[in-house]
Amino acid sequence: MHTTHLSTLIPLLLPYLCRAEPIPQETPNTIDKDLTTLEIHVAPNPLLTNDTTCLLGIECPEGTTQTVSYFTSVNDKAIIHGDVIFGSEADILAAAVNNTDENVTKRAYSIWPWEFSRKWPLGMILYQYEDATTAAGRGPKFEAAIKRWTNMLPFLSFVKYPDGDVNQPGVLMVRAIEDSTTYSYIGYVPYPEVQLGRPDLPETDYWYTHSIGHTLGLMHEHQRPDRDAYLTLDCSKVARNANGDTPVCGDSCVGTGCYFNILNFGEDWSGTYDIESIMHFNPGDFAKDLNDPPLKPIDPIVFGDRVFPTVTDANRVCDIYYEVCRGVCGDGILALANGEACDDGNNIDGDGCSADCRVEIIPTEWCGDTIVQTNLGEECEPPNTDTCDAFCHLKDPQPHCGNNNIEFSLGEECEPPNTPTCDADCHIIPDTNPGTCPNHCNPNVPDNLCHETTSCIALFGASGDPGLPFGLSYGCACRAGFRADGVDPADSSKQVRFSATEYTSWVFVEPGLSCDTLCSPDTNPYPCSEVPRHDECW
């Protein structure tokens, strides 16, 4: 998404946005990009069609097409939908319907296959800045945008690599561009990249947060098939691009009109429409007159600061990374498995519950009022007694073994106690006959033999195989709360659990086994106590 006057966008928004009185515009707004409109092949979701040729880089199945308009950015990247990197310009030209070269690859790294097959392993995003200048100029605001996501989704992990100007496989290259917006791939790609616009513009915070949403796998909200139930689109109000094309919206779109296309070819658009989503167009984006935008809500709405992901945005990312996501901070639901000590339904610091759902104790306000406010982290009242300290915390350790919460910092290894695999002190009972371990898996298609109810994920810290991606080991992980079907849960040759905290929610199974059997619920938030832990298999 792009406009030459985004630096003036905020004070020019509609009156219903609760901004200042609109400033009259003397000349129509135009987009300073030369756009090329073409029809491209769109691959069906290989996870739904059982077709893996797109993942192998072979020509994708034909029959589904989409009209897009694109321009080129730095590093020869073709940008569609206003801010989405399709691939190189050669990639998008190769995907064109009228391309007669039978040897070209008709697929896009960015969008197809779908986001669920383009996940970052374990929600870990490795990134590097192109150079020290980019790190200094873009880094502070980019990392602030990262924190807006990780506050809500603490399972996400952004790991910085040393600066360098050469793309590395699986490492997000962060480049600087002299533009008002940002451009990014959707989801994980072999050589991921994000191009960050100027940090001095007022809309930068929005764009940086928005681009991270794309990187995690989110599409544009305003391109959902149900958009027209919530907004009306007037294509006559869309600005022309630099080469003067009259915008046309719809399936046979032209120029900037293509930015408003509905995407309706099999995606899983989870949840209800969210007009306040960080992935939604701003009012006025690509508008001929910034006071009269093309997209208008059917029901009046007052927008707040479009800087933070909404709970809907976070839930959608959680759905994509369901194997590792244990909840959303800020949704008003206290999720201990998500590491939350509180959840007041927002992501604001200074109100007693921090932006990342940690308790903010201000003793002079709460501790000492004779009310034990557990939602604020208090454990006792009044303070300064034999059993209650000055911060309203119990002086003697509380009983923990048997509270169904594995507290590794207190030496616990399992919950609940007194089970065949967990002793009375919450320590794991070794298996005297461990048997063999489940086989590892290979995430490469077609070598990924994991059942569709499992995911082949990396086992960080395990001894790797040079023939596997990044030299890592991988295991078929059931979704949280499930174990293998039709086998003895204690048969460690078929399924095991690991003690490492990043894997405590999962059961790892033999490739090919399905996982639709619910685990015993007696060890919430880490169920499946009937499946022994065998760290030697890791």
Automatic annotation (TrEMBL):
<keyword id="KW-1015">Disulfide bond</keyword>
<dbReference type="GO" id="GO:0008270">
    <property type="term" value="F:zinc ion binding"/>
</dbReference>
<feature type="binding site">
    <location>
        <position position="220"/>
    </location>
    <ligand>
        <name>Zn(2+)</name>
    </ligand>
</feature>
<keyword id="KW-0479">Metal-binding</keyword>
<feature type="domain" description="Peptidase M12A">
    <location>
        <begin position="103"/>
        <end position="326"/>
    </location>
</feature>
<keyword id="KW-0862">Zinc</keyword>
<dbReference type="InterPro" id="IPR001506">
    <property type="entry name" value="Peptidase_M12A"/>
</dbReference>
<dbReference type="GO" id="GO:0004222">
    <property type="term" value="F:metalloendopeptidase activity"/>
</dbReference>
<keyword id="KW-0732">Signal</keyword>
<dbReference type="GO" id="GO:0006508">
    <property type="term" value="P:proteolysis"/>
</dbReference>
<feature type="binding site">
    <location>
        <position position="214"/>
    </location>
    <ligand>
        <name>Zn(2+)</name>
    </ligand>
</feature>
<feature type="signal peptide">
    <location>
        <begin position="1"/>
        <end position="20"/>
    </location>
</feature>
<dbReference type="InterPro" id="IPR024079">
    <property type="entry name" value="MetalloPept_cat_dom_sf"/>
</dbReference>
<dbReference type="Pfam" id="PF13948">
    <property type="entry name" value="DUF4215"/>
</dbReference>
<dbReference type="InterPro" id="IPR006026">
    <property type="entry name" value="Peptidase_Metallo"/>
</dbReference>
<keyword id="KW-0677">Repeat</keyword>
<dbReference type="Pfam" id="PF01400">
    <property type="entry name" value="Astacin"/>
</dbReference>
<protein>
    <submittedName>
        <fullName>Zincin</fullName>
    </submittedName>
</protein>
<feature type="binding site">
    <location>
        <position position="210"/>
    </location>
    <ligand>
        <name>Zn(2+)</name>
    </ligand>
</feature>
<dbReference type="InterPro" id="IPR011936">
    <property type="entry name" value="Myxo_disulph_rpt"/>
</dbReference>
